Amino acid sequence: MSDTADLREIARGLVARATAAGARAADAVVVESDGLSVGVRLGDVEKLTRARQRRAGLRVFVGESSAIVSTADFSRDALDDLARQACTLARHTAADRFAGLPDPAALASDVPDLDLYDPAVEQLDPEQAIAWARDAEAAALGTSSEITNSEGGELGAEAGQVAYASTAGFVGGYTGSRASLAVVPVATRDGGMQRDSWYTAHRKLAGLEPPAAVGREAARRTLRRLGARRPPTCECPVVFEAETAASLLRHLAGAVSGSALYRRMSFLVDRLGEKIASDAVTVVDDPLRPAGPASRPFDAEGVAQQRRGIVERGVLTSYLLDSYSARRLGLQTTGHASRSVGDAPGAAPTNFFLEPGPHTPEQIIASVRTGIYVTELIGFGVNPVTGDYSRGAAGLWIENGELAYSVEELTIAGNLKDIFRDIEMVGNDLVLRNAVAAPTLKIGRMTVAGT
Amino acid sequence: MDVAKPEGFFRERFGVTDGTLERVLGTALERRADWADLYFEFRVNQTASLEEGEVKKATRNVSQGVGVRVVAGARSGYAHSDEVSLERLEIAARTARAIADERTGAVAVPTPARTPAAHDLYALARPPIDTPTDDHVALLARIDAAARAVDPAITNVLAGIGIEHRVVLVATSAGTVVGDVRPLVHVSITCVAERGGVRQQGSYGGGGRVTFDTLLDGRAERFAREAARQAVANLDAAPAPAGTMTVILGPGWPGILLHEAIGHGLEGDFNRKGVSAFSNRIGTRVASELCTVVDDGTIANRRGSLNVDDEGTPTQRTVLIERGVLRGYLQDRLNARLMGMPPTGNGRRESFAYLPMPRMTNTFMLAGEDAPEDILRSVDRGLYARYFGGGQVDITSGKFVFSASEAYLIEGGKIGRPVRGATLIGNGPDVLTRISRVGADLQLDEGIGTCGKDGQSVPVGVGLPTVRIDGLTVGGTQA
Prior knowledge:
The structure holds two protein chains of two kinds.
Chain A: H1 5-20, E1 25-41, E2 44-62, E3 65-71, H2 76-90, H3 119-122, H4 126-141, E4 147-166, E5 171-189, E6 192-195, E7 198-202, H5 211-223, E8 234-240, H6 242-255, H7 258-262, E9 283-285, E10 308-312, E11 315-316, H8 323-329, E12 337-338, E13 346-347, E14 352-354, H9 361-366, E15 370-378, E16 388-399, E17 402-415, H10 416-421, E18 423-426, E19 436-437, E20 441-449
Helix pairs in contact in A: 1-2, 4-5
Chain B: H1 6-14, H2 18-28, E1 31-32, E2 35-51, E3 54-72, E4 75-81, H3 86-96, E5 101-104, E6 113-114, H4 133-148, E7 154-172, E8 176-195, E9 198-208, H5 219-235, E10 242-249, H6 256-263, H7 268-272, E11 293-296, E12 317-322, E13 325-326, H8 333-339, E14 347-348, E15 357-358, E16 362-365, H9 372-377, E17 381-393, E18 399-411, E19 414-419, E20 423-427, H10 428-431, E21 435-438, E22 443-444, E23 450-453, E24 456-459, E25 461-464, E26 467-475
Parallel strand pairs in B: 6-8, 10-17, 16-25
Antiparallel strand pairs in B: 1-5, 2-3, 2-7, 3-4, 7-8, 8-9, 10-26, 11-12, 11-16, 12-13, 14-15, 17-18, 18-19, 18-20, 20-26, 21-26, 22-25, 23-24
Helix pairs in contact in B: 2-3, 4-5
């Protein structure tokens, strides 16, 4: 499925229908995907799923009003009907002088090949997928007699196309793929049970880590959680392992995205150009990274893409904007429009990461006299308006610079404004496995609640 | 749109006849499998959103599709497509059966027989999807006005109406064919308050499997005032305490405690696999004697209720904990069969694009005997948590969290100063043993809950009377 001509034609046809039905402007997104997912548990196949999905979404502007509709029915009648429905629905919404498509000057003039598609992912044989899931789980189970159970190994492979067309004159499409392999072992000791997991993900099949390595890492992470205690309530340094550090970057991305800013629902309102983080923090958004997990040749409004500094040595240098939030803020779109087929575009990060620093994770841990190394966070205790932060955590207690024992049933709390200013050390271990990523980070001081 | 009879609906719209069902189930069972089922779904979702006093956005999304499942032992083969045609169904059936042994199966597929749904919990004279868009716009304007009237500090109101209309049809290789038409409406409101450079937010909402008119009797305005009141109350909030203390949970939505602390841990899949902190604990004490907890999918018009689950099993009231003793698990067909237990009508899925799993419906604790004022008076120092955001649980270690969005210090048996939101953390198998008082004031939530598991979201309900918990960790910043 490397040619997107059919989907581009559907997108173009929808936009033409919208104009005929009375729209002043319109844009359409059409997506199609095929996926395979297999699950193996304790060596036996547990599930095999094949998915095939397609959807078409249309946004219309009638006067200064707008509406969004979508369907999975691609018949001529259904698409005619969709365009009429959209225009009817738009007549019920209020005029909004900021509504509209991006300035044509911002649109992509070509569609760069970013190496996003691997036919081997699409053609993956289910037997091969099962073998890899089985190998990964077996490696975890074989690591230690304390690995006593498993939630299984799972391999997913998906390939899909996206096409976009608008009355501003842009029509484009691209093809992508993604494969992933995950293992969730369960370990027991003295009646206590723990689980953890590890995974690998890449746009290309050959980019996946070897199954046995994924299984062994999953087992290592699970075993180190055994014998967990509760820490005392205290204030101390907190080291975020790379996977948990990425969640701090997600909070940052949310706080600098257009809709949060124009609604004044961000703890970073009016802070552009100011120091919001320590000197050690430089954050980049790069949609053009070859084979990157969130790379794309144009955004969900057809806008050209570029690598952009968001935070430079602690100073907030750019927001993440789509064309609507940009007009609301009196700025230009930054090409961060993202949308699900049936919803209006909003601003979201692409490949958004904190640049690696000079320290190994071991050096960072060694710098802490007593503190916590956080390997898992749960819950939703973040207030985006105030920056108040309080989440459930599990990890390892640090004593005299060394990982001493496992801890659980604790919370870490602070305020994101202080947390970013208090990043004292940045690790050298950045891996772009997901769209938003960070290396190991040390926060100077947070409140830990335990016993 | 006449969807009163799901069988007729899928026949007329997609040409799905009894012959189609029989033929596709036959293809699915050509290998040695235990059973197969087909899940047809047609869904319309409509939304309208208000901000800055105006409805600037409206959406309407239509989805349709079918999933074919073949089950052999603990194995599930599944294929789905958003093209509902005999050709696609046959391809899906052949794909799904790849999970089963090559040998020819001996299962004959009986002729499909119509099974009436066991309950009739949400037949509505006019489903909310039939409400004109102008009525949505008018209600959102009333919500906006009601919220802004609470306090001049309210600077923005974001409000949305979401309406869903879902028609499903389940056909199984046992010969049953059962359909369900599921209306759903919800209103959600977030208010921003700003005073003296301090900004805060408050959120509230509600709904259910009810008519749109149900929201018009002042209910929507009450939600709006509640969201605004929370935002304003939070403006004066002090930093929350950190550490283990006595906590009182108010009635209603704080029932999310039960959902996270015990509900997920009692789902059949985790217990069959032995990976839940509650595995092999039926018949043992997991809560104080004051606690009886049920999951009930049969309450009329509730957000979490269903006439039948997504495998065609009638929903029921399942006792999970009876006077402190663990009594039952929540089951879908697959896990019930493998555990030798009856299914409980908890096999649910987000859409045709997913395999069903054991999920909760409406989960709540039965009322006790104490007056809520007496419970408050019994605590000298502690935390009173009135409203919550989301929660999460690690079912294997049993550790769960849920985050308060409105909370107060308790000082000398009285509600004192508001404190900023904080996450509460505890251990599922242990937390209910610490419940020392249960109020007579059971409330179900307003109808806003959505539960996520393994990437699938389903609407759920929770409920709780006022309870006192002797020792829960509060994750504030004041150590």
